[in-house]
Amino acid sequence: MTTVSTRSAGRFQDRTVLVTGAGSGIGRATALAFAAEGAHVVVAGRRPGPPADTVALIEEAGGKALAVTADVSRPGAAAALVEAAVDRFGSLDVAVNNAGVFRGGQPLADLPEEDWHTQLAVNVTGVHLALQAQIRRMRTQPSGGAIVNVSSTFGAHATSPGAAAYSATKAAVTALSRGAALDHIRDGVRINVVSPGATATTMSLRAGETEADRAERARATLPLGRVSATEEVAAAILYLASGEAASLVGTDLVVDSGGSL
Prior knowledge:
Blueprint: E1 16-19, H1 25-36, E2 40-45, H2 49-60, E3 64-69, H3 77-89, E4 94-97, H4 113-138, E5 145-150, H5 153-156, H6 164-184, E6 189-196, H7 211-221, H8 230-241, E7 252-255
Helix pairs in contact: 1-2, 1-8, 3-4, 4-6
């Protein structure tokens, strides 16, 4: 089980951070990392169980967190998440839009229409609605806020057979983020992107592949010789959200073991 140890002070001490898709994988690692640096974390996910488990890990280590069940593709869900964060902790200082789905594995011509619409709704419309709700709150705050959207190397940087539709949605996330960054930096809202490559999550496993199989494939195909750890992606997200990255606006930070070189 992943654990977290809180510290008495950190880069995000007493800041309110919202993380979507935080019930597992990159989202959970990110929520734990923010909590370890003193943040109050709102943990969002489509099903109630996984976010509650993430919150339990944070609270066991002495941190503060709130679990909220939300489908980001639904109208009103993003605004409700922002409201929940502000009601509980008083502000929204950082938002990480990590929720995403992959439907693919077959050529584009054979992709069911429902799978296209699902990916578009969650990966693109969900981020669009989240950005609107988060920016509308952050621009009213004297301190503004920071937003990090989680895209993918599939999209603006690379693609793979069976991932055309997914790649299109993630390329849209990158473009949407860059445009929003330009629109709202003068409002005090700083927006950036992290694009993970193959990471130690179930999404990077091919059909019928075990973690050992994936490790062997990574040794042969990735320049670094391994997939990225979820904690490494989380570290990139925290950097972009922090004051250390104050001059980064619309940046797309690739974390992919060299896979898209």
